[in-house]
Amino acid sequence: MDQSGFAGRYKVGTRIYTGFVIVLFLLVAVAAIGYRGLAGADSSFKIYADAAGDAVFAQTVQSNVANLRRTVVIYTERGEGEDKVRDSIKALKPMLAKMREGANTAAQRTDSEKMIALFDSYTAGFDKLAQLRVKRDGLVNDKLFPSGAHMREVLSDVIANAFKDGKFENSARAGMAQEQLLLNRISVNRFLAAPNTKYIEEVRGRAGKFIDRMNDLLPLLTIPANIDRAKQIIEESKAYVTLFEEIAGLTTEIDELVFKTMAGKAREFGDLGAAYSGDLTTNQGELEKQSGESISRSISLALIFSGLAVLIGVFFAWFIARSIIRPVEGVRKVMAELAEGQLEVKVPYIDSADELGDMARTVDALKVVSVEAVRAGCGLDRVAANVMMADTHGNITYINPSATAMFKNAEADIRKVLPAFDHTKLLGRSFDEFHANPAHQRRLTAELSTTHAYRVNAHTH
Questions:
Q1: Helix/strand/coil (H, E, C) string of 199-243?
Q2: Residue among 134, 41, 35, 119 nearest 82 (CA)
Q3: With a threshold of 0.90, does the pTM exceed it?
């Protein structure tokens, strides 16, 4: 019966190499999966780091815009820091462009484009603010303040001249007009410092009182030059109020522009910036989740393939060892049985195509030879002639019962010549011990080609 099985179809080396290649393939697969997992995790972490960097960058942009707004307010109130504002605008434009280029989603791209449009509008608003501020400051510094100072100087001269001439009523009324002028100028400065409609009404009211005091003074004046100067001051006061109203209109326009229009755009910009940052934060959470899932999948696959590699490696080790050990053990058992003379035993695995099959077939051939030898031995055991056999090395391998009986009967005589002779210990000994010239016998057996008969005499000489 063929006991070779599936493994017996292949050489032992083929089996070992096949198992090694399969396990090696699995190990390579584990390494590839691990590398892929690490590469994926590295890519995810890079994307996550980029998203975190984008979030920080977006916060920086928002912070810079907030600083810009504060600088604009300071410029509006004090007229200081225009260069700082324009430097901030110059620095923010490429930052906003970078935000748009780094947008990863449609929402981020849309928000960044809206933020750029709002910033451009805010910048245009500041350009207009700068123009209005220059115009207003020019009116205040070049016209309003000099006009107020001029009216004060004229009234001071009128008061001094009237007091000098002893016209104390004129001096008193001129002083009352000058008081209203000073109060009016104070209201103007209050408005310029903190624009409020109540200060506008104060300026108008005190300008009216100033004109009333000047009209009370006019009838008391007798010198034509003083009369002309008083009338000039009255007209100049009217022009002063008109100029102030124009300045107040510019100031109101500036406040509307800065604290409503530009502030509204800044708030909208801030809302978009918050939405942009929120989307980045959301993406960070998703990326973190994806990275964790990717790493978990890679670890799971690596563990699965590692487990498979171990199981398959163990299986192949067991399978290959079994495919070798079982035939070897079977052949060894047969050889032991043959050595014990059990020639009827069947040699297994003789149909295997591997080296173990070759060994089994060799043992089977030896078995056949042994059976034939036994059969021959059985025939010689029964013949009356004395038969003794030796191998090619001259070692005695067989003595039939007739020869054994002969040597037993002649043992006493033979010991006279060979004292160590023992008929029970002939097997395995060299026949050279029985010849005076062993070399001669060796030549005879080496050159033997036909039947050779001779007589052996045991003697001392």
A1: HHHHHHHHHHHHHHHHHHHHHHCCCHHHHHHHHHHHHHHHHHHHH
A2: 134
A3: no
